[in-house]
Amino acid sequence: MRKTNQPECTRIDDRALRFAFGFRTDVDLDYQRGFVRPWKGEKQFLFEVPNWERNIELVTARTGMTPDVKVHLRWDATGCDIYSKNHEFIITAIPSQKASRSEFESFEGAADAMGHHMKRKATMEQAADKFRDEVVQSADVLKYGHYLSSNAKVKDEYNESMETAMEEKLKPEKKTKKQKQTQISKDDMIRSAIEDF
Question: Which is nearest to 35 in space by CA: 51, 45, 46, 24?
Fold first, then answer.
């Protein structure tokens, strides 16, 4: 580190440097699954939000519960700082690891990068499945709550509907005519074997 005349003067952090001297742009993150793709001239840069499956809640909280996620970016080659529309800092996205499945485009470290992206995809799919399951459970709770508010004989009717649904799931499949004949012929064989004994 360089000696200065001001010993209390510390190095400016990267986020402050990007805010002061970096590129500026606005993007919509809603369909990018944790990737940020700003353009500079004809070149597109690619950054990824770390732990997107967890940090999406942070992004949503800071940008509001809207169908589109419009954000303001301050970025350079080292990173991309994501801000809400009212310039509240949200998170820093890091440069994404480049990966290629093609043998002709492969390079040293491409396999590691591909493994990273495949792991990231699996984690995101698990998070989506968990969210879907929670929504289904919530729907069941709301259904019961709706019964409670609209009916006096709620518990009995709800239990009947749930029992009917369970019975439908547990009903054995109807046997075809051929399966029934096979079962009858097996029963006849067992009876004749017992009689012969």
Answer: 46
Token digits for 174? Answer: 């109807």
- The gap from C-alpha 118 to its chain's centroid, in whole angstroms, comes to 13
Q: How far apart are CA 137 and CA 91, in angstroms?
A: 31
Q: Please, how many CA atoms are within 13 Å of residue 87, restricted to the half-sphere of its CB?
A: 3
The residue among 5, 45, 48 whose CA lies nearest residue 22 is: 45
pLDDT digits (tens, 9 = 90+) for 31-76: 777 888 898 989 989 899 888 878 888 888 888 877 788 899 999 9
Mean pLDDT over the full length of the chain: 78
Question: Which residues have C-beta within 8 Å of that of residue 95, sequence separation ≥ 6?
Answer: 45, 46, 47, 48, 77, 78, 79
- Which strands sit side by side in the sheet containing 89-95, from one edge to the other? 23-28, 70-76, 79-83, 89-95, 47-48, 35-36
Distances (CA, A) of 57 to 61, 149, 151: 6, 32, 37
71 touches 93 (CB < 8 A): no
